[in-house]
Amino acid sequence: MTSAAAPGNRPAPPPESGPTGDPKSGPESGVGPGSESGVGPGSESVSLPVARPAPAPAPVSGAAPWRGWAAVCAVSLGIFCLITSELLPVGLLTPVGAALGVSDGTAGLMVTAPGLVAGFCAPLVTVGAGRLDRRVVLCVLIALMVAANLAAALAPNFAVVLAARLLVGVSVGGFWAIAGGLAARLVPERHVGRATALVFGGVPTASVLGVPAGTLLGELGGWRTAFAAVGGLGLVTLTALLVLLPPLPATRHITFPELPALLRENRAVRAGVIVTFLVVTGQFAAYTFVRPILQEVSGVDARYISTLLLGYGVAGVVGNFLAGPRDAYRTLLVVSSALTVVLASIAVLPGPAVGTVLLLAWGLAYGGVSVSVQGWMIKAAPEAPEAASSLMVAMFNFAIAAGALCGGLAVDGLSEPAAPLGGAALMLAAAATVWVTAIRRTPDRSDGQGRIGHRA
Fold it and tell me: Do 290 and 409 touch, CB atoms closer than 8 A?
């Protein structure tokens, strides 16, 4: 279940002119704003049709290098804390429902509702933040998450719990949209890819460590203890952000009309949003039903499912860090292609050993998705990364809900294998979209039509 203030903190050399007189893209960096686009020499991204903002002062200029990396770690801790909070009810549905007198289906709203709210709030918070210092915005969002979890821990009924979960959705959507591109403002350009991977390492790590730890706390001390513990972790995160993050003044003020304008004017952003929808919908169409797939198709004993899912999560952490320093476009082509094969195979190939290998490959491949789609959006719109990333975060969260819905319809209407097969079809469509829009090299033309960033 991502972006940042515009990177522009270091003076850039005068741009060279391409065949059309437009500036070429900057030096290559895995996911940095000046990265090579992967579409051939002279590639470029088209910004919004607004005045070009002046470069912002470098917030960490003159600071020791460790300060920038410490700030990146604080942001990563924030992502870890928020994703843990968002997914925590997955392991607590039954005890919460039993304690508050609601069914498991109704208790499931604790997961669905924050995801939908996060989708809506990613662009809303990005626009509403205006010219506020991004350090202040991130701290406020973490504080909101702390309050929400403490409210859930003390809730007298399910209505209060659900209201608190809606606040978690606001925090997740806003924090992800603002924080995803901050690495470019905290570390030197050559390290942006690795730093961004570190930030997004909080996503799979929350699945591997945060959610199981919260579930264990719920079993030992009750579900209220689990929510209170996440609130306490949020206080630690808030302290880290206050101490370690430098001032991060906004570099431009985004307005609501600019968001649809960005989709209209920038092909790369449109393609990135489409790829995000296809990959994430395909993922959750299959992953939502991974347990019955492993049992019914692969024949895995139910006693080993939790252990295998832990292995899946660890593989996802590895995949995230492998993908971080690499070109986002090519990584997404590899990831979507690999997931096409893995999901199609796990739907039809029997055997516990085969199922185990495919599940680990699945985790490794999908682990690179979050950091790569974030890198895509930063490269697609380097002058408006917050706006571009807010669109991606919104689509990411909506696609989670769409994937679970589509997978459920496939399983109920056909069979368990239909869910991963449908996911594989969407992954294939994603791979084709990446190839057509970002990878396939075409000869440079004087009109620039062959470039991904060309204005529609």
Answer: no
What pTM value is reported for the model?
0.70
Residues with Cβ within 8 Å of 128's Cβ and at least 6 positions away in sequence, in order, are none
Span 245-286, pLDDT tens digits: 998 887 767 777 878 888 888 888 999 999 999 999 999 888
Nearest partner of 252 among 11, 13, 34, 56, judged by Cα: 56
Q: For residues 82 and 92, what is the distance between their CA atoms, to the nearest angstrom?
A: 17
Tokens of residue 442, six digits: 């075409």
Share of the chain above pLDDT 90, in %: 31
Among 63, 64, 33, 32, CA closest to 47:
33
* Cβ atoms 454, 46 nearer than 8 A: yes
How many whole angstroms separate alpha carbon 334 and alpha carbon 342? 12
Phi, psi of 453 (to 5 degrees): -85, 5
Q: Terminus-to-terminus CA distance in the chain, angstroms?
A: 31
> SS3 letters for the chain?
CCCCCCCCCCCCCCCCECCCCCECCCCCCCCCCCCCCCCCCCCCCCCCCCCCCCCCCCCCCCCCHHHHHHHHHHHHHHHHHHHHHHHHHHHCHHHHHHHHCCCHHHHCHHHHHHHHHHHHHHHHHHHHCCCCCHHHHHHHHHHHHHHHHHHHHHCCCHHHHHHHHHHHHHHHHHHHHHHCCCHHHHCCHHHHHHHHHHHHCHHHHHHHHHHHHHHHHHHHHCHHHHHHHHHHHHHHHHHHHHHHCCCCCCCCCCCCCHHHHHHHHCHHHHHHHHHHHHHHHHHHHHHCCHHHHHHHCCCCCHHHHHHHHHHHHHHHHHHHHHHCCCCHHHHHHHHHHHHHHHHHHHHHCCCHHHHHHHHHHHHHHHCCHHHHHHHHHHHHCCCCHHHHHHHHHHHHHHHHHHHHHHHHHHHHHCCCCHHHHHHHHHHHHHHHHHHHHHHCCCCCCCCCCCCCCCCC
98 Cβ partners below 8 Å, 6+ apart?
none
Give Cβ neighbours of residue 81 (< 8 Å, ≥ 6 apart).
Answer: 142, 145, 202, 206, 210, 230, 233, 234, 237
Q: How many residues does the chain have?
A: 456
User: What's the average model confidence in pLDDT over 326-347?
Assistant: 93
C-alpha–C-alpha distance, residues 344 and 420, integer Å: 6
Confidence of residue 154 (pLDDT cuts 50, 70, 90): very high
